[in-house]
Specification:
This protein is α+β, with helices and mostly antiparallel strands. The protein has a single domain, classed as 2-Layer Sandwich (Alpha-Beta Plaits). The chain is built from seven helices and eight strands; from the N terminus they run H-E-H-E-E-H-H-E-E-H-E-E-H-H-E. About 35% of the residues are buried.
Length: about 230
C-alpha cells in the first residue's frame, strides 16, 4: 500500500514522441581509475581521445550517420558491475536499419571498442542533445524482466523531473542481445557530484527509487561523462 501511495505522489513524466534514429553505443576501457570514483586526466586517455575524435569525423562523413559524439568519463561510481568505460562514443544513425551497415564500416572498426550495443529510442523526455555542454549520464540498467523493468523505469521518471530537475531523457533500448535491459542517456541539470548528492540526501530516493528498483530486480549502473 505504501508503494502505491508513493507512486501517486510521483506521477510519471510527460513523454515525447520517440526519435526515429538508430543508436550505436560503444564503450572503451582505456585508463580507468582504480578504486576512486573520479576520473583524473591521463596522457594515455588524451591520446586515445584525439584518435577517436578523428574517427568520429570519418563516421559523420557516412551518409547513414547523423552524429558521432565522443565522451570522456568524469565519475564512475564504485558500484559492483558498473562498466569501467572511461571513453564512450555514441553514434546516431538515420534509422535503426542502418546500424548493421555502420558497424561493418572501416571507420567503425577503427574505434576499437570493447563494448558495442545497437539500440533504438523507445521512450523520451525533452531533448537530450539540445546542447552538448555539461554532464551526461549513461545509466545502465540490468533486470531479470526487461518489460517489467521498463514499466518500473517509467514510474520513476516523475521523481527525477520534479525532485532533481531533470528535463530530458533518451532511453536506448537494445536491438538484439545485450547485458542491459536499456541504457538511459540524459543531460544532467548540474555537475556529477551535485547530481549524485541530490539523490542520496533525499529520503524518498531510498524509500521510493531504490525500493522500486529492488522490487523489480533492477540494478542501475551509472556512468557520468562530458562530451569532448
Amino acid at each position: 500500500m505504501e508503494s502505491a501511495n508513493l507512486d501517486l505522489k510521483h506521477p510519471r513524466a510527460k513523454f515525447a514522441e520517440p526519435l526515429p534514429y538508430g543508436y550505436i553505443y560503444a564503450g572503451m576501457t582505456v585508463d580507468p581509475p582504480g578504486r576512486a570514483p573520479f576520473v583524473r586526466r591521463s596522457a594515455r586517455r588524451d591520446e586515445a581521445l584525439e584518435k577517436l575524435m578523428f574517427v568520429a569525423d570519418q563516421l559523420e562523413a557516412l551518409d547513414e550517420v547523423v552524429r558521432a559524439t565522443v565522451y570522456r568519463a568524469v565519475l564512475i561510481p564504485p558500484i559492483e558491475g558498473t562498466p569501467r568505460f572511461d571513453v564512450t562514443v555514441l553514434l546516431k544513425t538515420t534509422s535503426p536499419e542502418e546500424i548493421d551497415g555502420v558497424q561493418t564500416s572501416e571507420a567503425f572498426e577503427r574505434l576499437g571498442a570493447d563494448f558495442v550495443m545497437g539500440a533504438r529510442n523507445s521512450r523520451r523526455i525533452g531533448d537530450t542533445e539540445e546542447n552538448l555542454s555539461g554532464t551526461f549520464l549513461f545509466n545502465h540498467f540490468t533486470a531479470e524482466d526487461p518489460e517489467r523493468a521498463l514499466e518500473a523505469w517509467e514510474s520513476l521518471t516523475g521523481w527525477y523531473t520534479t525532485k532533481i530537475g531533470v528535463d530530458n531523457s533518451t532511453l536506448l533500448q537494445p536491438i538484439g542481445e545485450a547485458p542491459y535491459a536499456f541504457v538511459n542517456y540524459v543531460r544532467l541539470p548540474r555537475g556529477p557530484v551535485r547530481f549524485m548528492l541530490d539523490q542520496l540526501i533525499r529520503p524518498s530516493f531510498h524509500t521510493f527509487v531504490r525500493a522500486k528498483l529492488r522490487a523489480n530486480s533492477m540494478v542501475a549502473l551509472p556512468l557520468l561523462c562530458e562530451a569532448v
